[in-house]
Specification:
Two copies of one chain form a homodimer. By secondary structure, chain A is an alpha+beta fold. Chain A is built from 19 helices and 33 strands. Chains A and B meet through strand 22, helix 13 and helix 14 of A and strand 22, helix 13 and helix 14 of B. Chains A, B: Belongs to the glycosyl hydrolase 65 family.
Chain lengths: ~775, ~775
């Protein structure tokens, strides 16, 4: 734990007292978003201290020219960067001629910041004494509307406490924006025009290269003690800037406030020529509704999300705060309504990692969205990959594959690869497996087979083709081997026969064959279309099968475990416990070669396979592998603790499971990885949800039914969660001695609890 | 072969006819150098067509800020770039107001370019018709003086053929120079001042960051029909530019010529404040000697070099031209008088690869310099590494090594690493072995043991320490293993137990121990100093020995060969012959992962070990390994064919040896690798020399004696070479039926020929 200034609270993230050293971390932690846009918790007024400014629009990115030390054939020309967008939140405040700036005040008292997760708003209040000795009380409240997702609203108030004052609010919009993360210091935005109409201002700007057209807009109203003022503002404009000024003499203890509405219209939703008129419509709706009613609507909208997605934890405020923080940010990032969007690793909270889509989506996020939203949401995430299939085939062609084999990119925005380290881009190919697995997982959970004949089977065929070609026959071993890969544990590069990769390759082929047969039998017309398009033949499938049936797996007879890769046992097998702690984290202390030849594991690798394919191994096998690999695992990926928490719970090691749970759920709140100022770890937040539902709750889908093996950490009195299973809502409440199952739905549901069949019905809760 | 416009000639490189498409290639091929400076064969007069301008000063480099895609701990902050230096060769020529520019003339006839390797000069002549219809005959001759190594001289003449003409020569010096190879488009030179004194001009400039101070200078004289003119030139200067203009009315068929002397003084040889006065002295010497006499001196100086270094080939002009081209360029690049300089991979012919020193020096260049120069030269090359020992220890510390272990850099200028690909920088550690091997090789060849107690032993100890720490014990194998390396075959990265690396590691430890014992016994005072400094103990040496004695080697019982690395036999073993030729060269056609998992070998790897340690294997073993590995070798490194040529010769496969020989000796002349425009492959040129002397001549040192097993390709009538063996010169002349041995020296010499002892003496040549 590296930060602990966040005040524990069940429903809010709270900070009290102003510390400039916390500003960047808080800007990340208090970020707000509504799926369509998001922003770091930057101050509205000027701030001259260290800050990391960030506003982001979903789907708007920039193809930054790739930077490499040494070019390798097949590298992508560009890296898709998350783009810092024009800002609409700014309100310069001048009090008797002095600008309000928390970094330059004489004193700041009663500073308080709150991210109210229950209701979806951010607030801030403080009392500041300026250099001119005027003391003012300031408060602001801000949110990005879930209902009107192009609009955000701010209520910013100021009250002079020790004298009358002349106060100016200068709300502005600014498109003179740069990225911190840029390879070549390129300019990313091209401002097209700045226009004003009455009290509204608009800046039209497009991104360079990708030519995303956007309109950033604002309109404000000012009040004294709640009474609307009608004085006309003055207007200032620059080439990429527009501002209104509202100046008023304010009496001591009067409250001068401004309601500012702003946001973006973008050409994903409107035609380029109608961005301003769309903006006007949005502003009109916001103004008509008014700040107060919009905030009410916001609370309602979040209440609906929480009703389904909330997890309660009784008796452990920090754990409760942690899980809600994770669920809240996931929902701020992606709401699932758009199949062209995805879940970026930093969401709307920072620029790092570029791209928007990693295998995190399939491996970690889909279970969360499947269980807490309508199935359409998970289907959209699958459709996203289906829409990128053609580009994945092109990507594989660049690497020498043929016949419609697909390799999905490691990182992407639009389906094209944007990563460029050969050991990752070209070799971390197990990502293909996660994409097939997500199809299987979706079908298993939702029972919605229709996705497979409609879209999924084409993806499965292209992935099976890849594995078939990527494996080669070793005469030496009389088996098929997969050489030169990087597994989920990125602390090994270019290894041979990574067990996880080989296993998922075999699984992908077998699953593709199974689905081919099922579609052929049950959806002959779809099969005809697909086989016409893919030119799949019986001979080809037989060739795949030969590879799957003869896959090689490194195994240790001595330890009775599958080996992470060929040669793993040649390493110096010192456990993490016995490693000098001054050497941690090894990714900051050691050179890359040293990391590679060490036995240390960044995140679940062999154990990731045991997580995905749990049914195919006994608990004893899981235990043996867990005991063999976990001691070498440094968990230096945010994606590591959750899988281990789930497995520790399954092995009834609740203390260990609880420790992993805390680490995953408060990763950012407590800044375990020394990097929260750069933004939050959004995708791993879904892993936290899995730790509770799959880990402690022991939820699985078996034979078309939900199955639970509830456990509870001794630190908790109880916890509860809901899952949407095939359009019925099951609520699970676990206490130290009993578990209650409730059903919101219209028909009885058979579930399994600790291996026994239980029937729950809408009227009767069941306690076990 | 991709270019064949160079006219075969025994002593010259010749080009006839002007083709703008050949300009860049010829600029490389006709490059001149004198060890202290060098330059591409750029034209003196303006040339508006495609050209790659380059002038280089030995030891002057720039630490260009490293460019990486993803930073890894331990990467160097900068990459030492070969620096394009201010130019002194330029002479603008104006004829009746029109600038002479071969790319803009109406016609060019009788174009001829010659690099006279025997005498060490470059000439060019042509007849051009300008747009103004004046026809002129132009000739130039240029050389960089071996005697006055700060000075070069140009004789540039022009004769109007069809009318009188007003002609201006405008000789200039220019420090407004940029690099083509720059990571961030930085400016590398900072011009301090431009000064004129009478007919001399000077530009003082220093490199940014490294602050190498240089003075570029010139002085010229003009003549009509050989008669010195005394008219005063006009002077023009800019912030980084100085020019004189000499304008004269020249009658039809009169020859107007200019002798221009120019060059550099640098602060490696003079104090910073005396660069101009040193330049004046150099100019004074050059002017006093005069162009004609300087050229005479140049011929003499080159005659001396050739007397020792020449290899003659009778009956094969292209082979003759090839070998002399290689020997000539090696001598232009490095003359061995300065232990702070080394042999850059492109010498003074281009910018690529940066740095100046790779393991090429120890593995390929030292044998050439040992045999064709005084032993002091090879000793200087060894001393260069001794002087960098401290930085090699620091480099190893950055990678986690302790106790004075050294890892020499992959690429360096000043001893610091300047390479940044983890798989090379951190893992291609066999380079340490080549540095130890060069010490062994030097002692074996020269018999000069003194280097070892004076300097070599410290290097050997630091290298042995590295290997001891780098290996780890595998309980699985009950042996020591070396994990995560890149061998000489860079088409494999991060492999385990590269046989060559393991072998040379063991050898380094054993050789260090042997030398410790020898120094301890024979030079107790030196040993005392060294052991005091290195704190070497008996216990430490025992620990080394344990590693050396228990080193693991991958071996195939089936093929009876050592395996290049663990898992080599799992590859798809299709030979190069059976590989679709459209896929070649694979480094241009395939993505990196595909190269890595293929069996294809870039350059000798296991066979490099068989080359270095030939005595430790039987000819049958060599044959088995050659037959196993060569068929998978694509020879896509310039360093590949020579080792294979030597081994093919040893195996009596003369046709194959000859094919490899042609490929290495005419690599650049025939542009096998499509890249001669970027500069020449200087270090591999020493491999060509080895192909003849060690390959065809079969020269080895065995038991302190020279040994020969002469062979001759059927395409040749005969060949001859000389070697300096311990201050006696042995000349070997091989014909189809006999070999003659002659001795220049003062005492009898025992040599071995085809395994039999032969005595040669200064008076009596021996024919066998």
């Amino acid at each position: 734990m590296n930060l602990d200034y966040i005040i524990p609270n069940k429903w809010s993230i709270l900070e009290e007292g102003f510390d400039p050293d916390h500003v960047k971390a808080s800007e990340s932690l208090f970020s707000i978003g509504n799926g369509a846009m998001g922003q770091r918790a930057n101050f509205e007024e000027k701030y001259s201290g260290p800050t990391f400014q960030g506003s982001y629009i979903a789907g708007v990115y920039y193809p930054d020219k790739t930077k490499v030390g040494w070019w390798k054939n097949g590298y992508p020309e560009y890296f898709a960067k998350v783009l810092n967008a024009p800002s609409w939140i700014g309100i310069n405040v001048t009090i008797n001629g002095e600008e309000l700036d928390l970094f330059a005040c004489k004193s700041v008292k009663n500073f308080r910041r709150e991210l109210n997760m229950k209701e979806g708003w951010l607030s801030r209040s403080f009392v500041a004494t300026l250099q001119n000795d005027i003391e003012v009380e300031v408060s602001s409240k801000r949110f990005l509307s879930l209902d009107l997702d192009e609009v955000g609203a701010i209520n910013f108030s100021i009250k002079p406490l020790n004298s009358d004052a002349e106060i100016t609010f200068q709300p502005y919009i600014d498109a003179g924006i740069t990225n911190e993360d840029t390879n070549w210091d390129d300019k990313f935005w091209d401002v097209l025009n700045v226009t004003r109409e009455n009290n509204q201002a608009f800046i039209q700007a497009k991104t360079m290269k990708t030519e995303f057209h956007t309109c950033t807009f604002m309109e404000s109203q000012v009040y004294v003690d709640g009474e609307l003022l009608s004085n006309e503002p003055t207007f200032t404009e620059g080439t990429s800037y527009a501002a209104f000024s509202y100046t008023n003499k304010v009496k001591q203890n009067e409250t001068y406030s401004i309601h500012k509405f702003g946001g973006y219209t973008v050409d994903r939703n409107h035609s380029k020529n109608e961005l301003i008129s769309a903006a006007k419509k949005s502003l009109e709706k916001a103004k008509t509704t008014g700040f107060t009613q919009m905030l009410e609507d916001q609370k309602q909208a979040w209440a609906q999300i929480w009703d389904m997605a909330d997890i309660t934890i009784d008796g452990d405020v920090k754990a409760q705060q942690g899980i809600r923080f994770n669920i809240f940010h996931l929902n701020q990032t992606y709401l699932g309504t758009d199949a062209t969007l995805n879940i970026g690793p930093k969401g709307f909270t920072g620029e790092k990692y570029g791209g928007s889509t990693y295998w995190d989506t399939e491996a970690y996020c889909i279970p969360f969205y499947m269980a807490t939203k309508d199935q359409e949401v998970a289907r959209n995430l699958l459709t996203y990959r289906y829409n990128h299939l053609e580009k994945a085939i092109e990507n594989a062609e660049k690497l020498g594959f043929t016949n419609g084999a697909a390799l999905y990119p490691m990182v992407t925005m639009n389906g094209e690869e944007s990563h460029n380290e050969w050991e990752i881009t070209f070799e971390e190919i197990h990502r293909n497996g996660a994409i097939a697995y997500a199809i299987f997982n979706y079908y298993r959970y939702t029972g919605d087979f229709s996705y497979i004949p409609e879209m999924g089977l084409e993806v499965l065929i292209a992935i099976a083709r890849f594995w078939h070609q990527r494996a080669n026959y070793s005469t030496q071993k009389n088996k098929y081997v997969i050489l030169g890969v990087t597994g989920p544990n990125e602390y090994e590069n270019n290894v041979n026969n990574n067990w996880y990769t080989n296993y998922i390759a075999e699984w992908c082929i077998n699953y593709a064959i199974e689905m081919i047969d099922k579609v052929k039998a049950g959806h002959p017309n779809d099969y005809k279309r697909i086989s016409g398009k893919t030119k799949i033949t019986h001979e080809e499938v037989s060739a795949w099968k030969k590879v799957a049936d003869n896959m090689y797996y490194p195994y240790s007879e001595e330890h009775k475990v599958y080996l992470q890769q060929d040669g793993f046992l040649d390493k110096e097998l010192i456990t993490v416990e016995d490693l000098d702690q001054s050497q941690r984290p090894i990714n900051q202390k050691w050179s890359w070669d040293r990391i590679l030849r060490s036995p240390y594991i960044k995140q679940a690798d062999t154990l990731q396979g045991f997580y995905f394919f749990e049914d195919q191994f006994t608990t004893e096998e899981l235990e043996r592998h867990f005991d063999f690999y976990e001691p070498f695992t440094v968990h230096e990926s945010s994606l590591s603790p959750c899988v281990h928490s789930i497995q520790a719970a399954k092995l009834n090691r609740m203390n260990q499971a609880y420790t992993f749970y805390l680490r995953t759920s408060r990763l950012d709140l407590d800044d375990y990885n020394h990097e929260v100022h750069e933004g939050l770890h959004i995708t791993s937040m879904a892993g936290t949800w899995m730790s509770i539902v799959e880990g402690f709750g022991g939820m699985r889908v078996k034979n078309d039914s939900l199955s639970f093996e509830p456990r509870i950490p001794e630190q908790w009195k109880g916890y509860s969660f809901k899952v949407n299973f095939r359009n019925q809502i099951v609520k699970v409440s676990v206490k130290q001695n009993e578990t209650q199952f409730e059903l919101e739905g219209d028909k009885e549901l058979q579930i399994m609890v600790n291996g026994k069949e239980v029937t729950i019905s809408p009227d009767n809760s069941v306690v076990i």
